[in-house]
Design goal:
Blueprint (H helix, E strand, L loop, with lengths): L2 H24 L4 E4 L10 H10 L4 E4 L10 H13 L3 E8 L14 H15 L3 E5 L11 H15 L1 H7 L2 E5 L7 H11 L4 E5 L1 H6 L4 H8 L3 E4 L3 E6 L4 E6 L8 H11 L5 E3 L6 E4 L18 H11 L15 H23 L1
Parallel strand pairs: 1-2, 1-10, 2-3, 3-4, 4-5, 5-6, 6-7
Antiparallel strand pairs: 8-9, 9-11
Length: 351
């Protein structure tokens, strides 16, 4: 082989390998973990990164600020280097930034300061997003309803617009613990400004908001910049239904269909597993008073009909209870790890 042929063949081989890698990288969403899935460990950020690397994941979502040992630049730089060396992309988040929510805490100052800190940490760690949320389903029943809290959250987000835009960070608002339905979160994002605000989509929390996950995805998918995913089981009861979250692939959500549509609507966004399994929550929707916090028309909507259709396919599953005594904590940690690892393994194998 002469030099010209060698160079041609080398270039062809390199191009083929690049194309092969590109095809592999775009054939399925990146797969990661939300650190909250194994919250019982009590680990700090560096330990979550090591664990994600041991599972051969693509991303590690550190979704609460308290797991960082401090917010000094040197420390944050060391975490980024650790993740880079492990081939992990980091995502960063925090909790409630709505000062009128029942979940609000002033641990990091005002709501505006809290979100500003999250954006700074996200920038230092190379996260494309700073995740936060409004509150939980109790906020729907407060004076002014969920709309009041949505308006307050928009104010906090807009106070950080210039900071987010300057740092190239998207503020990702999660549909959290049944606080907002997909149409409401879409409205909030559009009111704040979708050029720098997006959704952190959570199909488990969607079920708590009486939405079937694939229907929910159709609304929020185009706005999605981050995710925290798990499965769900729903079954009918005398007063309504019970909902229990599950490992991915073990509930009623068709995750092959979900992942395919997710990749179409939110290309490049990872599926990050946040299993919170083992307990069931009642939804007494057959009682009229249950509907007071929800839009009047939702009870007869196609979206709720899809949720009911999912429920009809469900069956009761047992809850998890760790044995009492000195081994309780270790049993809880083992359970959380098993739920997460089955989920990431299912995604890695089936997608």
């Amino acid at each position: 082989m002469n030099r010209r042929d060698f160079l041609y063949q080398s270039a062809f081989t390199t191009a083929a390998l690049t194309a092969s890698k590109l095809k592999a990288s775009t054939s399925r969403p990146l797969i990661g973990m939300d650190h909250f899935a194994v919250r019982g460990t009590g680990w700090k950020a560096g330990q979550f990164i090591d664990y994600a690397a041991s599972l051969k994941l693509d991303t590690c979502f550190i979704s609460e600020l308290h797991v960082f040992e401090n917010f000094e630049e040197a420390y944050l730089k060391s975490l980024k280097e650790k993740a880079d060396n492990a081939g992990l992309k980091l995502y960063v988040g925090t909790g409630c930034v709505c000062p009128t929510s029942n979940t609000w805490k002033d641990t990091y100052g005002t709501a505006e300061d809290h979100l500003a800190l999250t954006i700074r940490v996200a920038k230092a760690l190379g996260s494309p997003v700073a995740r936060c949320y409004l509150g939980n389903q109790k906020d729907r029943s407060s004076d002014g309803g969920i709309q009041k809290h949505m308006e307050e959250t928009v104010k906090v987000i807009q106070a950080n617009k210039s900071r987010a835009e300057a740092e190239g960070i998207k503020i990702a608002i999660e549909n959290h613990a049944g606080d907002m339905q997909s149409a409401e979160l879409k409205t909030l994002i559009e009111a704040a400004g979708k050029s720098y605000v997006g959704a952190n989509i959570d199909p488990g929390n969607a079920v708590w908001a009486l939405e079937e996950p694939l229907t929910h995805l159709e609304v929020l998918g185009p706005l999605t910049v981050c995710s925290s995913v798990r499965g769900s089981m729903v079954w009918e009861t005398e007063e309504g239904a019970m909902v229990q979250w599950t490992a991915v692939g073990e509930g009623l959500v068709d995750f092959k269909a979900y992942a395919k549509r997710f990749a179409e609507l939110a290309p490049g966004v990872p599926l990050q597993v946040e299993t919170i399994s083992g307990f069931a929550r009642p939804f007494a929707f057959k009682k009229d008073e249950f509907w007071k916090p929800f839009p009047e028309s939702y009870r007869d909507s196609a979206s709720f009909a899809a949720w009911l259709g999912m429920m009809k396919k469900g069956q009761e599953i047992p809850s998890f209870k760790a044995p009492e005594g000195p081994e309780k904590k270790e049993a809880e940690i083992a359970y959380q790890k098993a739920e997460l690892e089955r989920s990431t393994s299912w995604l890695q194998t089936n997608l």
